[in-house]
Amino acid sequence: MDARARQPVHTEQHAPSYYAATANRQLAFPPLTGNEQADVCIVGGGFTGLNTAIELAERGLSVVLLEARQIGWGASGRNGGQLIRGVGHDLEQFRPVIGDEGVKALKLMGLEAVEIVRERIARHAIPCDLTWGYCDLATKPRHVEDFQASYDDLKALDYRHELRLVPAEEMRSVVGSDRYLGGLIDMGSGHLHPLNLALGEASVAQSLGVRLFEQSPVTRIDHGSELRIHGERGTVRARTLVIACNAYINGLQPELAGKVLPAGSYIIATEPLDEALAHELLPQNMAVCDQRVALDYFRLSADRRLLFGGACHYSGRDPADIAAYMRPKMLKVFPQLADVRIDYQWGGMIGIGANRLPQIGRLPDQPNVYFAQAYSGHGLNATHLAGKLLAEAIAGRESRGLDLFARVPHLTFPGGPRLRSPLLALGMLWYRLKDFF
C-alpha cells in the first residue's frame, strides 16, 4: 500500500473517499434547532430520503428532512457507483407469495428504477459523470447459463436497451483479464459518481422547498396521529414520518432494525492511469461485476482511476487496512497493476435483508410511519424507486408498490444486535462454498 493512501476514518464528516475528494459542490445545511412543522418528516439524508423528499415536494407536500451527519454520508455517498437494472435477488422465490403478475411487476419496477435516475439527472442537469454500459461477468459455466436466462427474460419484458451475450473468446473486448468465461452486456445500466448525484439531488430538494437539516440525529419519536420527532436541540411535528436510515438505523426503530443487517463493503481507487492502460483494463469504459457471493465490482472514474470494490463482510468488523486487503483481489483480476499506486481506500455499510428484496412499506401498528431499507447492494437504483413508491402512497394517489412489497414477509434476524452479524456470517459461509461448485 502506498503511504499516501487515505485511511478510513468514521467521523461526522464524509469518509475520506475518492468521491469526497472530487465532490463538485459543497453544501452545508444547519442543524435542527427549535420547532418545525411539516406534512412529512424524513429521517435520513441518503438517496432514499432525498428522492422521497423530491417526489413529495413535487406533489405539493411540505417536507422536513433530518440527517444525523452530512447529506450522502452513508452508503449513498460511498458506494461503487454502479447503476444496475433490477430490484431484489432471485425474484422467482416470491412467486408462491405474489404470483406471476407480482413477479412480473417487480421485474418491471427494477427497470423503471434506472429510468427514474436517468430522468432525474437529465431533468435537473446534475453533473455526476453518468456513463452508460454495464457487463455481468461469469466465473463459472452456470453463470453463463444464467446470463442466457436473464437475456431471454429481459427480451420478454420488451427491454428497450441493447443487450449482448459475450462469449469467452470475446471477453477481452470488455475487460482486460483472462479470469472470465463470458458476460452479459446491458447498455441500459451504467455508472456514475454517487456523492455528486446525492449532493445534486439535495440541491434539487432544497429548490423545491424541502427544509434540510444536517448534524441532526433523532433521539426519540412520539407516535400518534401527529408525530413528534425529537432531535438533540429541536423537534419536528408532522402527520407522516419516513424512516430512511437503512444500514445506519441502529436502535431508532427496533422492529425495522431487526430486519436489516449492516454489512461492510470496501473500495480502493488507484492513481490516475494513462489512457492506454485504462483502455486495456476496460476497453468500453463499462461498469462490471462478477456473480460470486463475495463479489468483485469495478469501473473507471472520470479521471481514469480504477475503482475496485467488493469483499462484503458480515462480521461487523472492518479490515484494519482496506488497501492491503483489497489490493490482492484487484491483482488477481489485473496483475498488470502491480506497480500502480493506491490513492484512496474506504468502506461503509450496506443494508442486507434475509431474502434480498428491498423492504418498502409502512409499520402495521403505525400507519403514518413509512420506511424503505435493505437494498442488498442494489441501492443506487432501488432507492430512487422507493422514493417514488413512498411518495405515491403518502400523497394518496396510488399504492401499487407498497401493496406488492407488503405481501412479501421479511425475517427478523435472530440473536439481537450482538449475535446477528456472527450468525449471518456463518450462514453466508454456505453460499460462499457454493461458489466453488
Automatic annotation (TrEMBL):
State the Pfam families in the record: DAO
Kindly give the InterPro entries that the UniProt entry links to this protein: FAD-dep_OxRdtase, FAD/NAD-bd_sf
Q: Which domain of life is it from?
A: Bacteria
Which SUPFAM superfamilies does UniProt cross-reference here?
Answer: FAD/NAD(P)-binding domain (SSF51905)
Q: Cellular component GO terms, alphabetically?
A: cytoplasm
Q: Which GO terms describe its molecular function?
A: oxidoreductase activity
Where do the FAD dependent oxidoreductase domain residues begin and end?
Answer: 39-392
The UniProt keyword set, sorted, is:
Oxidoreductase
Residue ranges annotated as transmembrane are: none
- Name this polypeptide is given: FAD dependent oxidoreductase domain-containing protein
